[in-house]
Every structure is written in C-alpha cells, then in structure tokens.
Design goal:
With 222 residues, the protein is an alpha/beta fold. It has a single domain (6-221), classed as TIM Barrel (Alpha-Beta Barrel), CATH 3.20.20.70. The protein has helices spanning 21-28, 45-57, 71-83, 96-104, 127-139, 156-166, 180-189, 198-201, 209-221, and strands spanning 6-10, 12-13, 16-17, 35-39, 61-66, 88-91, 108-110, 115-117, 122-124, 145-147, 171-173, 193-196. The strands form 3 sheets. The chain has an 8-stranded parallel beta sheet with strand order 7-6-5-4-1-12-11-10. A two-stranded antiparallel ribbon has the order 2-3. Strands 8-9 form a two-stranded antiparallel ribbon. The longest helix is centred in the N-terminal third of the chain and has 13 residues, at 45-57.
C-alpha cells in the first residue's frame, strides 16, 4: 500500500524538545523517516535553526509543533517557524492573526482543534464541535490539522476515524502513539501523518532509536 500514513519523528519527550536532539538526529538521519520535527521549547533559537538547517540538508521535511494557547505565544511560535524556515507549523490554538501570518510567509499551518490545555496536552470537547471548527478554519485557508486524538478524554478511536473521514484536508494524529495496537488503529484510520516522540525514548518499539523508527515505518507500509 503506497498511501500509508507518514511517520513524523518528534525529537521530544512529554511535549518538550530533548536537549540532545541534534545528536539523536545525527545518529538517525539515514533511517527511513522523511518527516522530522520538535517543539518550540526549550532549545535556544540558534540551536533550533542549526538543527532545522541540518534536517533540510539531509532532505527531510520539517515541522515545528507549538504547544501554546495564548495568541501572543502562538504568534511567537509561528515567527520561530518562519525564522527557522520550517515547512509546516503544527499546533497552536487557531487565531486569525497566526493564520494570516502563516499565509503571508508561505508557511503551512495545521492548528489544533477542540479545547486543548496543559503540557503534555489534554483534549476535550465534542467531536461535532471539532468538525465544525475544522470546516471554519478550512474556509480561512489553513493547510490541515493537528489532531490530539490519543490525548482526548473521550473515545479516541471514534474521534480519529470521524475526523479523518469527514475533514477534507491533511490530518496529523499527534501524541501518545505508543503501541502496535495504536499503530494498527492508525493504519485503519489512515490519516495523512502521525507523530511519535516520547514512545521512541521509552523504547516502546524495542530497539535503538533508529531501529524503532524503521520498525514503525515498515509496519505502516505492510
């Protein structure tokens, strides 16, 4: 199956970028994953720029996921993504100002939907309201959505399936994908992409960081 969901490797643990992110990428740059990213905290901007530049030199598509909820902090994250020349901004609550900034700077924007709080993030709200939100944001020109499906306090599988099937845009299911059971559910749901970060650090897929990446990548292609 060629149209498998793409793995985005996040160099993050508990929604924060790990301090040795550059070294881990260096060790894993030849793994099969094409999509790589990390969070807006806590690395200094110069280290973020250095790592994103290296990822791009290695032919990777790059992501910044921003776990912030105020307009000021979300805009700050968008500006970091532009300064780092990221390909895609994920996360942030949706704000018109952030959306307009992304469009002005040719940055693909995939905001959260639903009521998102805390760090690591928690998702609440109804599926119906999330679908309504998505349609409103699509009318305003967003590229796609960062769906915190497995952080949802309700029925995660139902949310993921309904959202992916009913939203006509790229959907990334992000957060807490930490087992082959959940990978199986992702295969059935078939979103555009999904993220794994903490689970690799916790060795949930058994092997070196690079071996785990390739195991997940190959499992999704079966």
């Amino acid at each position: 199956m060629n149209n498998h969901s793409e793995l985005i490797v996040m160099l993050t643990y508990n929604d924060c970028t790990v301090e040795n992110a550059y070294n881990i990428f260096e060790q894993c740059k030849n793994s099969k994953a094409k999509y790589w990213g990390f969070k807006e905290k806590p690395l200094p901007l110069n280290e973020m720029k250095k790592l994103y530049t290296y990822m791009k030199e290695c032919g990777k598509t790059t992501f910044l996921e921003v776990v912030e909820y105020t307009e000021e902090e979300c805009m700050k994250g968008a500006k970091i993504a532009v300064e780092c020349q990221c390909d895609i901004l994920m996360g942030t609550l949706f704000f018109d100002s952030v959306n307009n900034f992304c469009k002005e700077n040719n940055l693909k924007y995939m905001p959260f939907v639903g009521e998102v709080t805390s760090r690591p993030s928690i998702l609440t709200g109804t599926i119906e309201n999330m679908l309504d939100e998505a349609n409103r944001y699509l009318e305003k020109g967003v590229y796609g959505f960062d769906l915190l499906g497995y952080r949802y306090i309700g029925d995660s599988v139902s949310l993921n399936e309904q959202f992916v099937s009913q939203v006509n845009a790229p959907v990334c299911i992000a957060g807490s994908i930490n087992s082959y059971q959940r990978l199986h559910e992702i295969k059935n749901t078939a979103p555009w992409a999904f993220t794994i970060g903490s689970a690799f650090f916790d060795n949930k897929f058994d092997g070196t960081f690079s071996e785990q990446i390739d195991k997940v990548y190959e499992y999704m292609k079966k």
